[in-house]
Amino acid sequence: MTDVIVLQHAAPEGPGAIGDALKRLGVGMKTVRLDEGAPVPASMAGAAGLVVMGGPMSVYEADTVPHLLPELRLIEEALDAELPILGVCLGSQLLAGALGARVYSSGRKEIGWHEVRLGEAARSDGLWRGVDERFTGFHWHGDVFDLPKGATPLAASAMTPLQAFRAGTNAYGLLFHLEVTEPQVRDMVRTFEGELATAKIPGAPIVEGLATHLKPLQRIGVHVFDRWAALLQ
Questions:
Q1: Domains in the chain, please, with CATH?
Q2: Active-site residue numbers?
Q3: Which of 44, 33, 105, 103 is nearest to 67 (CA)?
């Protein structure tokens, strides 16, 4: 099986548990470090699927962030080829944008450990069926998006009515972070300290919440990401 392309936008926001799921299936992973100046691949040719990770930029900043338009084109190519796609946080926003949906600032930050509620469609979804209807997810975003035309909403939170969606049968967007490890969460709190300060969100409770929330979230991650990885077959 060929490799999955992973687009990474920030040092703390690597594939985490998604990479673990790919390893369990024996699928290779080509991580493209856009944050280190690597170019967006020109084509999906020969790739098994596409993973687009989070980052501090916004989809509507394409005029000042040069890799965003090539990313959108790559996502569109993967959609046209009906390859498995997984977008996380910024990645979900890019997927929504590539599908023609509006992506915009919510005017507030949803950061930290907050409840995710699965919708009716998640009960029969290939990735989400069998997952508890309510669980605590890890969030770090200010931008949101409308539901792309023809897509299926899968999850919401109290602050954000659209936290996850499916387009077709193999493209998924998750606005919240299901993939995080403890080092990643700690690194995000350190790296994005300025964002926390501006939003007046203390970092200490986020780190303290690891003890309570991370292991249950990681169990869900194994369930969901293993099923997504199985789409590659």
A1: 4-230 (3.40.50.880)
A2: 89, 177, 179
A3: 33
